[in-house]
Amino acid sequence: MNEEEIRKAAIQRYLKGKLIYTDLERSKKWFFKWLKRHQAGQDDWYKDQPRAPLLKPTQIENTERQRIISIRKRLESESFAQVGVSAIKWELSKLGLSFPSDRTINRILKTEGLVKKNFVYTQRSRISILH
């Protein structure tokens, strides 16, 4: 007997006034969850529902994504302009637009290949002490 059949059987036993929890080796909480779904009147009440959130909190609209990318590219084309997250947020605020978190902006720039690492090499001098 699969899980959906057990759920149907539990409701049938309940409607007939029989013991439910102990016979099916399920908890009281489990049973009332399925009873509540049955009483809601949906035809497929016994089926599992997806647990994934309907909206992803990290998801950003494509128009916002393209706006961030275009601002970054424009800033890169200007001489001596800052191109980081703060500069992008500043440009968005000048336009009167809201902006996502720093992490989200960085994630967008990284997926688009717009993040470039700058390495600064310094030469260390050795000081020898003569005694």
Can you describe this structure?
This protein has 131 residues and is mainly alpha-helical. Among the domains are: 3-39; 62-111. The chain is built from six helices and no strands. It has helices at residues 3-16, 21-24, 28-39, 62-77, 85-94, 102-111. α4 (62-77) crosses α5. The protein is elongated, with a radius of gyration of 30 Å. The N and C termini lie far apart (88 Å). The model has no long low-confidence stretch (mean pLDDT 84).
Which properties best describe this structure?
131 residues; mainly alpha; 50% helix
Provide the fold topology.
Blueprint: H1 3-16, H2 21-24, H3 28-39, H4 62-77, H5 85-94, H6 102-111
Helix pairs in contact: 4-5
Task: Describe, in short, the structure shown.
The chain has 131 residues and is mainly alpha-helical. The protein is built from six helices and no strands.
> Treating each run of at least 4 consecutive H or I residues as one helix, how many helices?
6
The end-to-end span amounts to 88 Å
Write down the secondary-structure element order.
Answer: HHHHHH
The biggest beta sheet reads: none
Helix content: 40-55%
Give Rg in angstroms: 30 Å
Shape annotation: elongated
Unreliable spans are: none
Q: Strand share of the residues?
A: under 5%
Structural class: mainly alpha
State mean pLDDT (0 to 100 scale).
84
What's the β-strand tally?
A: 0
